[in-house]
Write a structure and sequence with these properties.
The protein has 117 residues and is mainly α. Helices cover 69% and strands 0% of the residues. The protein is built from four helices and no strands. The mean pLDDT is 84. It is found in: Cell membrane. InterPro entries: CPA3_antiporter_subunitC, NUOK/Mnh_C1-like.
Length: 117
């Protein structure tokens, strides 16, 4: 289970970084979201992965640490707010600049193909 969990965290992180390096705003937003999911899963795993054990209750020592769970819950809320802010910022930039490129400039390759039409 740990290997699959680590593989999922790695895939989410790699996909997030790949999408963050794109030139348009929507892939950047999706990349930020995937990267935050990967980080949240990593933080959640630091509290120990147990199957079938109680989260906190019980006299036994086999329980998950509640601190990473609380951190992940807080990170999910902050990440959702950050995603909403970035989406609104991207929509505003598209309205003001007329395109959805991260730097606000349309690449010359696109301009050449548009001039031909």
């Amino acid at each position: 289970m740990e290997a699959l969990y680590a593989f999922c965290v790695g895939v989410l992180t790699a996909a997030g970084v790949f999408l963050l390096l794109r030139g348009r705003t929507f892939p950047v937003v999706v990349g930020l979201t995937l990267l935050s999911y990967g980080v949240n899963l990593f933080l959640f795993a630091t509290g120990r992965l147990n199957d079938g054990d109680a989260a906190v209750l019980g006299a036994g020592s086999d329980h998950a640490d509640p601190l990473p769970q609380a951190l992940v819950l807080t990170a999910i809320v902050i990440g959702f707010a950050m995603t909403a802010f970035v989406v609104i910022l991207a929509m505003r930039a598209r309205g003001d600049l007329g395109n959805d490129h991260v730097d606000g400039r349309v690449p010359e390759i696109v301009l050449d193909s548009e001039e031909r039409n």
